[in-house]
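Summary for the steering committee. One of the milestones for this cycle was to obtain a three-dimensional model of the protein with nicotinamide-adenine-dinucleotide bound, which we needed before selecting residues for the alanine scan. The sequence and ligand used are listed below.
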Amino acid sequence: MNSLKFKIKNHKSTIGVIGLGYVGLPLAIRFAEVGFKVIGFDIDERKVKMLNNGKSYIKHINEGDISGMGEQGFIATTDFEKISHVDAILICVPTPLGVHNEPDLSYVKSTLDLVKDHLREEQLLILESTTYPGTTAEEIVPFIERQGFKIGENFYIGYSPEREDPGNKNFSVQSIPKVVSGHTKNCLEVTRVLYDQIVDETVPVSSTQVAEMTKILENIHRAVNIGLVNELKMVADKMNIDINEVINAAATKPFGFTAYYPGPGLGGHCIPIDPFYLTWKAKEMGVNTRFIELAGEINSAMPSYVVSKVTDALNTVGKSISGSKILILGLAYKKNIDDVRESPSLELIELLLQKCARVDYSDPFISETHKTRKNDFKMKSIELNKDTINSYDLVLLATDHDDFDYNLIEKESKIIIDTRGRFQKSAKVLKA
Ligand SMILES: NC(=O)c1ccc[n+]([C@@H]2O[C@H](COP(=O)([O-])OP(=O)(O)OC[C@H]3O[C@@H](n4cnc5c(N)ncnc54)[C@H](O)[C@@H]3O)[C@@H](O)[C@H]2O)c1
């Protein structure tokens, strides 16, 4: 272990990042930035090719960062034999839900299968993907032990959850404190030494289970609080009160209150998914997670609530939803990014199409829709100008990208349904 620690401390070790997506890519960039040689592994040949050509496929990651990484010796590859060349293996692959909201660890398991023949002594393997408490100890440790290694003696296993917030310019990989854990004391020590090289603060915890549950708690905290404001939004609406004004007023309290904002539903790879990892595990223990289930119920009802507001708004001008032209603003699940995973905008489109509306969307960062697990709309983004906006019966603001020209939208729209509190309420602006 001492030689591995020495190599890491002197930035002489090679880092392997598996899964070069929203989490893995910034991590690889940060390790290269501080002078490590980094090898990036992915099964997606298109991404590997783009990275090796210095190109970025994520809007908020600059090409300069990719080419800078290349100058530090970074290569991307689909060849997992190269795992034998790395000292630390960081797994950042997806952990989605299955059809019955059960954890889908198939990407993690297939990664383990891909690396198993290329592992060697004195390597450190760390899972970064979000997962239920117990995954590292119950899935990864026995798998590595079956390959003949002694954990904590000649091979080290850690868990360190990613806290990436795509598009948030106030924080970087370096400035976000990183929770670190290890399967044994030695595993924790070497894991901590590794992350100490790239972040300002590491937060060691006593077990991989604690680290796994920390990440889940963070995401449950968001899901439950968003569920709360989404419920209060519906109450406030009945009372003709603007919920965003209420939240902003409450947020002036300097202690004991954190502002969460309502919206058209939860999106992204984390908040709608991760809490159910715990629900599933809790059921195994015979415990119900009612807060999680209730927040899930409220948040997943939001797209239908928004569509009911669309119906009401069209009714007031004597139109039915069937045949009406509706423009959805924003396809991404949150503002200023290009990620549509689990985006409520997709569900809004689906629900409106089911009601025979004629739906288009406009998103400055997503020029066309791609097939997802649930939808295949084959739509192209509409350019926003006076004539296009004016041609719709109703404009539905689903994602409040800063790049939208809100003055133009307000001036030219016939009716606006605002799910993000971006507009002032008026005769033609309704909140949903
Ligand atoms: N996106 C976020 O904001 C965020 C934040 C915190 C944590 N997380 C967690 O991080 C993990 C990764 O999420 P992401 O958003 O980066 O996903 P992503 O889909 O952007 O990236 C995952 C990458 O892994 C690759 N991949 C899939 N299977 C592979 C395999 N067997 N071997 C090598 N590569 C493989 C995919 O091709 C893809 O490039 C998830 O567990 C997620 O919950 C994500």
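Key point for the committee: The two ends are 57 Å apart (CA to CA).
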